[in-house]
Amino acid sequence: MSKIVVLGAAESGVGAALLAKAKGFEVFVSDAAHISDRYKQDLIDARIAFEEGGHDFDAILSADEVVKSPGIPEKAPIIKALHEKNIPVISELEFGARFTKAKFVAITGSNGKTTTTLLTYHLLRMAGLNVGLAGNVGQSLARQVIEDKFEYYVLEVSSFQLDGMYQFKADIAILTNITPDHLDRYEYKFQNYINSKFRVLQNMDKSGYFITYQQDEVVQNELANRTLQTNLLPISLAEKVETGAYSDHDQLHFMLPNGQRFYVAHTSLTINGKHNYLNAMGATLVAALWGVSPEKIEEGLKTFQNAPHRLEEVATINGVRFVNDSKATNVDSVKYALDSFKQPVVLIAGGVDKGNDYSLIENLVLEKVKALVCMGKDNEPLHKAFDGKVTKIVDTYSIADAVREAAHLAENGDVVLLSPACASFDLFRNYEDRGDQFKLQVKHLDDESLHSL
């Protein structure tokens, strides 16, 4: 009996362990941290051996194969030890995909992948396809494959997951864009990160389709140096395309490889901003390729509700809109957010800086940001980028102070936008916690308190 060791006992790890157990493997789960009660009970109920609070190297190094949580870096001592013994280390998605014949759309990119994933899933599900949602959202693929009841899966795939995928083959791949992100995991070499993202194409052939943004220079430069083995479907905001999709001033136009043509009005979308036109084009192409009619697609577009923390409207107080974009953990995400507003913006930004190049948004900030509220333990990178350029910059060190300062600086008709450009781990558990706390603080504001600030 082969032995599978799973490193990390959150959703992906426990899902992989349950699948391995169901398929008859000997299974051992190891987590260097505390395992939550919910996942611990899953392991106990399945009679799966586990440890928490540290790694037993001898037990782990006796594995025939290891399924690793995407949060564990390659430089971790246990991963180095596994590589030294030539023990295969894979991701949960790689493991789960072995046990299903379902079709996959794999969606990756530095920005936009979650919205595109959720919208694609919504369009397919509303059209009646037998579809599952997995990857960075929903239940783990491995957990769902135990019953193997879906014919299609929509997967949001991070670079960390792609790094552990080798035999996985997508039927359709979407690469939304590539901007510098997570470089601390890639030896601070942008090309290493680019290579990781392009792993989404591995094993694809002429039976598949690759959807990507035609105006993304990084992607296009990389494509110029690669031989593409699958069919390219570009999506464009700037020019017409012969096959794929493009946006003009009021419509999204779709041209399918089979000759089908249709369009969708911008007004049919429930998500705003040019970046969301790209997300909608990618999701719509997937649905159309898998046989969903234009009428069903438009119905789905009109009923879609995006996930929290992505340009989420929180409240309007005294004419000031408060918008939660906590998911914006890099500069490119902030670029898309600022581009979505015509009103003056009071921007709340800051956190754990990942080597951000703020020059990428300097022109947008100068054009749209009337005040910058820095929120983090170290606001120096923001000051270095914008001192003398933004009229008003204030420092805060808590979400409560940030919201109060932003409310004080905003006037009727302005937007208070939380779009941090940074990771959240200096003051919060994660970006969801940051967004939830922002929403809570906004709800504490009422008209009287806003006037009195």
From TrEMBL:
<keyword id="KW-0963">Cytoplasm</keyword>
<dbReference type="GO" id="GO:0005524">
    <property type="term" value="F:ATP binding"/>
</dbReference>
<keyword id="KW-0961">Cell wall biogenesis/degradation</keyword>
<dbReference type="GO" id="GO:0071555">
    <property type="term" value="P:cell wall organization"/>
</dbReference>
<comment type="similarity">
    <text>Belongs to the MurCDEF family.</text>
</comment>
<keyword id="KW-0573">Peptidoglycan synthesis</keyword>
<dbReference type="InterPro" id="IPR005762">
    <property type="entry name" value="MurD"/>
</dbReference>
<keyword id="KW-0133">Cell shape</keyword>
<keyword id="KW-0131">Cell cycle</keyword>
<dbReference type="Pfam" id="PF08245">
    <property type="entry name" value="Mur_ligase_M"/>
</dbReference>
<dbReference type="GO" id="GO:0051301">
    <property type="term" value="P:cell division"/>
</dbReference>
<dbReference type="GO" id="GO:0008764">
    <property type="term" value="F:UDP-N-acetylmuramoylalanine-D-glutamate ligase activity"/>
</dbReference>
<comment type="function">
    <text>Cell wall formation. Catalyzes the addition of glutamate to the nucleotide precursor UDP-N-acetylmuramoyl-L-alanine (UMA).</text>
</comment>
<dbReference type="Pfam" id="PF21799">
    <property type="entry name" value="MurD-like_N"/>
</dbReference>
<dbReference type="GO" id="GO:0009252">
    <property type="term" value="P:peptidoglycan biosynthetic process"/>
</dbReference>
<feature type="domain" description="Mur ligase C-terminal">
    <location>
        <begin position="309"/>
        <end position="422"/>
    </location>
</feature>
<keyword id="KW-0132">Cell division</keyword>
<dbReference type="InterPro" id="IPR036565">
    <property type="entry name" value="Mur-like_cat_sf"/>
</dbReference>
<feature type="domain" description="Mur ligase central">
    <location>
        <begin position="107"/>
        <end position="287"/>
    </location>
</feature>
<dbReference type="GO" id="GO:0005737">
    <property type="term" value="C:cytoplasm"/>
</dbReference>
<dbReference type="InterPro" id="IPR013221">
    <property type="entry name" value="Mur_ligase_cen"/>
</dbReference>
<dbReference type="Pfam" id="PF02875">
    <property type="entry name" value="Mur_ligase_C"/>
</dbReference>
<feature type="binding site">
    <location>
        <begin position="109"/>
        <end position="115"/>
    </location>
    <ligand>
        <name>ATP</name>
    </ligand>
</feature>
<comment type="pathway">
    <text>Cell wall biogenesis; peptidoglycan biosynthesis.</text>
</comment>
<dbReference type="InterPro" id="IPR036615">
    <property type="entry name" value="Mur_ligase_C_dom_sf"/>
</dbReference>
<dbReference type="GO" id="GO:0008360">
    <property type="term" value="P:regulation of cell shape"/>
</dbReference>
<protein>
    <recommendedName>
        <fullName>UDP-N-acetylmuramoylalanine--D-glutamate ligase</fullName>
        <ecNumber>6.3.2.9</ecNumber>
    </recommendedName>
</protein>
<keyword id="KW-0547">Nucleotide-binding</keyword>
<keyword id="KW-0436">Ligase</keyword>
<keyword id="KW-0067">ATP-binding</keyword>
<dbReference type="InterPro" id="IPR004101">
    <property type="entry name" value="Mur_ligase_C"/>
</dbReference>
